[in-house]
Amino acid sequence: MQKLYVLTGAGMSAESGIKTFRDSGGLWEEYDVMTVASIDGWYKDPELVLRFYNARRRQLETAKPNAGHFGLAELQKYFDVYIITQNVDNLHECAGSKHVLHLHGELTKVRGVDYPSTVYDIGYKDIHWGDKCEQGSQLRPHIVWFGEAVPAFSDAVEMVRDADAFAVVGTSLNVYPAAGLIDYVPSHVPVYLIDPNEVPYSRKVEFIKEKAGVGVEVLKSRLMKQFNLTSQ
Ligand code: OAD
User: How much is the pLDDT for 218?
Assistant: First the structure.
């Protein structure tokens, strides 16, 4: 099968009721990004940061994948689909996508501050100041904050160099290095971009000006045509 790589952002989960960051009414209107989502913010007020992510985790517990997540999972019938997501939710996995790389970490995982490589699943539970890992180090969310490296990015670059098709869904392409991934896709590879709003992009793309739910359906029909496939 041909390899389809898909970079997703907050817009992917908007129809599941999870707020995006930079849209009007988005999370960064309500919260100061550097206070709740940066390594400096963590050092200044870790309890506030823990409360912010506890609230995100509780909200995720009741969220369901939307038609866009299910549509991408269904594309696995026709393509080797690899999702590279900036989202920290687990909705791609819940919809049945088998290969999901989380560039910015995962809400349902935690790690000790001093032991970054031992990661624990906590599901939808809260973490509090004073909760420790097995080695006695304070637990923190397994999230990549502003001011921290993005360890999965080099794997993502290697992956997209091998793409037969590439799609971008629901990201404002504001945050690097994730936004730069599109530049590593070989120039002959078709790139599709799904977003209800204009977003800046640095190369030729097929722009599908739709929300993720409808946009992924349109993507499917364009891919089937491009690769001469028929629906099962
Ligand atoms: P943004 O909030 O910056 O962008 C969301 C994008 O989704 C915008 O382009 C919207 O137009 C689009 N959108 C809104 N509703 C949509 C829908 N129903 N279907 C499809 N698209 C829709 O979110 P990201 O680009 O994901 O990082 O933000 C990148 C990173 O910045 C996040 O991972 C997060 C944030 O700060 C950290 O916190 C480390």
Answer: 98
Distance CA 102, CA 100 (A): 6
Closest atom of ligand 1 relative to the 143 alpha carbon = 39
Ligand 1 mutation target, pool 13, 21, 30, 42, most atoms within 8 A of CB:
21
Who's near 85: CB < 8 A, 6+ residues apart? 7, 8, 9, 12, 92, 100, 101, 102, 103, 104
Q: Between the CA of residue 20 and those of 10, 12, 56, 102, what are the distances in Å?
A: 5, 9, 12, 17
Answer whether 20 contacts ligand 1 (Cβ < 6 A).
yes
- For the stretch 137-172, pLDDT in tens is 999 999 999 999 999 999 999 999 999 999 999 999
Other C-beta atoms closer than 10 Å to the C-beta of 24 total: 6
Exposed/middle/buried for residue 224 (C-beta within 10 Å: 0-12, 13-18, 19+): middle
- Measured in Å, residue 37 CA sits from the centre of ligand 1 at 15
Half-sphere exposure of 190 (CA within 13 A, CB side): 14
From the CB of 15, is ligand 1 less than 6 Å away?
Answer: yes
Residue pLDDT, tens place only, 166-205: 999 999 999 999 999 999 999 999 999 999 999 988 789 9
Quote the pTM value.
0.97
- Going by C-alpha positions, the residue among 214, 209, 213 that lies closest to residue 196 is 209
